[in-house]
Task: inverse folding
């Protein structure tokens, strides 16, 4: 009856009016497939309040603070291209685990339902909610009590398929054993008919050697184009051409004459292979390239020479450039602004960047960019960017893998108000709170990762308290600061300023010469606060011997 697995085997049905409703309850049984099933009232559960925009419980779409519509499965940004790139891996908006956001197995969903049921029951007791009583309308009449015996079933069917005799309708089966015998008889009859049909079909197939049912698809060339395109989705252009181009003319046309988007990965490519792809594939199909990955100075110089040729890659969505020289970056970003589909960008600069602020400004001007990862091996220190006023970026996931100071971080992030995920590597302090940046709050930022930092606990508190109130996932790594092992301070900090935190991944390395004191610090992380959230900690002690010299 249902297209999905359900925890029980009940069958739900509706009635047209109260007469049918009360009549069904009076009868007490319903016949389906020659079986009588008991009838009971269906009392629907209290409905969950959830948002179809961000898929979190507790509010509706009309009151959602998120301006970004998210995928119900993976919680990625649900735009026109998401269906083609979504991997279908579930991610829960409540607990952050690998299950669907409204999965009944989610602990947050279970707690919410339990609390909701308790509140509804209490509201009924207090009189806040009044249960509606069923009233009969003037045209509806109560069904008189039936005096029939309801422990009955229909007469059993004859097992003789060719000679069905009339049976007295007043004869009824009254016991469970007769009911089971009827079911077995029907199942046996069904199998006999199916076997007879299969035998006749097999006989016809033997008599007709040219039957289409005897034919099978044994050649790869017979696969429909739609399936071939699905296979192409998982291959870069080099593998596509080397595997399919020489099969026959049909595959040559699929590769050369179609508008199917292609992916190019030149990360680990020899010079001869690159020159062949450049001449026969890249230059002829610039308008079809959707993904381009480069990591060699020679290949970057060849493809983007002259630099204005970048504007010809009109369908480019993903660009990954590794080991690019700083002199090319600014010009490249200038022409990338002409691409209306570029949503993912990774740039790793191999030499020193003279003005990193200019590079950031160019990135923030890309019109539809959603994901950006930047790494500058070396750069010249400069004044922080001014606070953004009327020019904002569409970036939602930002990764900065080069050094960044606390006093310039907020100014940098002010250009990306839609930011949801932030990853920082080498974050330095001391924190200097600028007057104009104090009021900037990033309400969409829910996932933060900070690795290799020298921030103090006070600086971390100030940063999150003033700017990141909606954190749900925090990854933090800090070495050689005992204050970060203060479990009581973490409890106060999380309770006061990170009430929505669900995922807490914390790494800390210290030099501890007194193992007992170190163990005492760790024991504080076993309080009910941590256990209730299912946050558990492990530690590893590495001893190091010190040789003495005379």
Result:
């Amino acid at each position: 009856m249902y297209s999905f697995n359900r925890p029980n085997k009940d069958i739900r049905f509706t009635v047209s009016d109260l007469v049918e409703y009360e009549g069904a309850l009076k009868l007490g049984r319903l016949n389906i497939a020659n079986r009588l099933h008991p009838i009971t009232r269906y009392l629907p559960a209290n409905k969950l309040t959830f948002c179809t925009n961000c898929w979190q419980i507790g509010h509706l779409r009309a009151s959602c603070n998120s301006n970004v519509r998210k995928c119900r499965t993976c919680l990625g940004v649900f735009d026109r291209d998401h269906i083609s790139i979504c991997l279908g891996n579930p991610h829960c908006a409540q607990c952050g685990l690998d299950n669907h956001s409204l999965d009944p197995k989610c602990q947050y969903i279970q707690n919410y339902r339990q609390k909701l049921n308790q509140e509804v029951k209490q509201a009924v007791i207090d009189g806040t909610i009044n249960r509606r009583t069923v009233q009969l309308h003037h045209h509806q009449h109560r069904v008189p009590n039936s005096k029939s015996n309801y422990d009955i079933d229909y007469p059993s069917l004859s097992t003789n398929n060719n000679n069905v005799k009339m049976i007295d309708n007043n004869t009824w089966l009254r016991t469970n054993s007769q009911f089971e015998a009827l079911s077995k008889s029907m199942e046996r009859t069904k199998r006999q008919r199916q076997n007879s049909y299969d035998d006749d079909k097999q006989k016809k197939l033997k008599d007709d050697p040219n039957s289409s049912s005897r034919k099978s698809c044994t050649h790869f060339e017979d696969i429909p184009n739609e399936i071939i395109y699905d296979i192409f989705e998982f291959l870069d252009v080099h593998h596509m051409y080397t595997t399919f181009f020489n099969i026959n003319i049909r595959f040559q046309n699929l590769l050369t004459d179609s508008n199917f988007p292609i992916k190019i990965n030149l990360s680990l490519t020899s010079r001869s292979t690159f020159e062949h792809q450049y001449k026969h594939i890249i230059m002829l199909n610039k308008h079809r390239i959707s993904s381009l990955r480069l990591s060699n100075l020679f290949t970057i110089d060849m493809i983007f020479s002259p630099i204005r040729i970048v504007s010809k890659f009109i369908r480019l969505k993903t660009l990954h450039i590794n080991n690019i020289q700083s002199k090319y970056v600014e010009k490249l970003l200038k022409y990338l602004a002409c691409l209306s589909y570029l949503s993912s960008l990774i740039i790793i600069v191999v030499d020193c960047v003279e003005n990193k602020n200019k590079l950031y400004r160019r990135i923030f001007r890309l019109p539809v960019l959603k994901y950006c990862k930047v790494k500058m091996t070396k750069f010249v220190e400069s004044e922080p960017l001014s606070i953004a006023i009327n020019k904002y970026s569409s970036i939602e996931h930002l990764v900065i893998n080069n050094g960044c100071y606390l006093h310039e971080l907020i100014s940098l992030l002010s250009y990306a108000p839609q930011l949801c995920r932030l990853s920082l590597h080498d974050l330095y302090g001391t924190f200097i709170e600028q007057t104009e940046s104090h009021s900037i709050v990033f309400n969409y930022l829910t996932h933060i990762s900070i690795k290799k930092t020298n921030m103090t606990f006070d600086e971390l508190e100030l940063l999150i308290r003033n700017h990141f109130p909606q954190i749900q996932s925090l990854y933090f790594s800090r070495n050689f600061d005992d204050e970060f092992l203060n479990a009581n301070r973490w409890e106060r900090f999380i309770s006061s300023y990170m009430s929505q935190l669900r995922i807490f991944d914390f790494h800390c390395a210290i030099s501890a010469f007194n193992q007992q004191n170190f163990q005492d610090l760790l024991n504080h992380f076993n309080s009910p606060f941590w256990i209730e959230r299912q946050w558990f900690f492990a530690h590893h002690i590495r001893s190091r011997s010190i040789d003495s010299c005379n």
